[in-house]
Design goal:
It is a single chain. The protein is an alpha+beta fold. It has 2 domains: 216 residues, Jelly Rolls (Sandwich), CATH 2.60.120; 108 residues, Arc Repressor Mutant, subunit A. The protein has 12 helices and 12 strands. The strands form 2 sheets. Strands 1-2-4-5-12-7-10 form a 7-stranded antiparallel sheet. Strands 3-6-11-8-9 form a 5-stranded antiparallel sheet. A hairpin with a 2-residue loop joins strand 4 and strand 5. It is elongated, with a radius of gyration of 25 Å.
């Protein structure tokens, strides 16, 4: 492991916390013997974020972490093999908000009874004042900004309602994403007297995005439902299309997606079946060059007899008769 910066004692209280606030670190577990990388990765994450437990997959775990301080803000850039980080001990003496930029890999965030699935390219929020879990299911590249919660609360109020949930799409999020991109590219060149100003700009944009999400939250389900239907309709020909893929697209847990369909009086399975049968009926009515089997396969059915049963159950007629009748009419 390479490590630049003086090594503080994690149990030495406020004095070492001040040292951590003003020091940059670079961790790399590459040179460690088998089994040692996971142990020191826990120490690296605890030093740069807050006290946590990590569970690394495999004996030859490898991770790198660069932690950079900009005044009260810490920018932590990490690359690691799959691992899981969690805390059951809230940190209340110096509480943090974590703004996570997911650059590669898939992640599951759990906090306050909610579960959010995060693909590459997404942002997520979690706070250190209540238990949370981040589960990285494959190799991860992520940048996390550790922000002082007390500096944000006057502009947002308590944040328990917005963690482990996507921010609302809109102008505020667009501005936040572009500012983050510029900040991460320019952080090394900022002078010490510019750190606080950079934090205030980030604070204001993040507060605007959080408050926009709240203003849009009374009726998000209709738009989410339409998004889900559009995603499914565009991929009906994929026989492996499942709720996991839709959940990743929506940034929601599979259980939450099921609730989305339940609110519309349906289920994921029933809705997908309806979309496939309606698409098949339209093709049977309009297409003369393709057989019934070709049409069934084109909308995602891999079992022709199953397609025949479901089609007759829905329309009261066999696909063959429907095809012939539709072409004649």
């Amino acid at each position: 492991m390479s490590w630049t910066g003086a090594q503080p004692n994690l149990d030495n209280g406020a004095e070492d916390e001040k040292k951590r606030m003003s020091t940059n670190y670079h961790w790399d577990t590459q040179a460690l013997p088998p089994g040692q990388g996971a142990k020191l990765w826990t120490q690296a994450i605890s030093l740069s974020f807050q006290h946590v437990q990590t569970q690394c997959h495999g004996q030859n775990f490898h991770g790198t972490l660069r932690s950079q301080r900009l005044g009260e803000v810490a920018i932590n850039r990490l690359t690691a093999q799959p691992y899981r980080v969690s805390t059951s001990r809230p940190q209340t003496d110096q509480p943090w908000l974590f703004l996570n930029v997911h650059q590669q890999g898939h992640c599951r965030l759990i906090q306050n009874g909610r579960e959010q699935w995060l693909p590459a390219g997404s942002l997520s929020l979690n706070i250190g004042t209540s238990p949370f879990t981040l589960d990285f299911v494959d190799e991860v590249i992520m940048t996390t900004l550790r922000l002082p919660l007390e500096g944000l609360l006057p502009y947002t109020g308590p944040l328990n309602d917005v963690v482990a949930q996507p921010l609302a799409q809109g102008a505020s999020l667009h501005l936040l994403e572009h500012y983050l991109q510029g900040l991460l590219l320019s952080a090394d060149g900022l002078r010490a007297n510019q750190h606080d100003q950079a934090w205030r700009c980030l604070r204001d944009l993040l507060a605007m995005s959080i408050n926009e999400r709240r203003s849009a939250s009374p009726a998000p389900s209709a738009a989410r439902y339409e998004d889900a239907l559009g995603y499914l309709s565009d991929r009906l020909g994929d026989p492996a299309l499942n709720i996991a893929a839709l959940s990743e697209h929506l940034g929601m847990a599979p259980r939450t997606v099921q609730e989305l369909f339940k609110a519309q009086g349906s289920t994921f399975t029933a809705q997908l079946m309806q979309l496939r049968l309606d698409a098949a009926a339209q093709l049977l009515r309009q297409t003369s060059s393709n057989t019934v089997a070709q049409i069934a396969y084109s909308v995602g059915f891999s079992d022709l007899s199953y397609f025949h049963r479901q089609f007759r159950r829905r329309f009261g007629i066999t696909p063959g008769h429907f095809h012939a009748h539709g072409l004649k009419s």
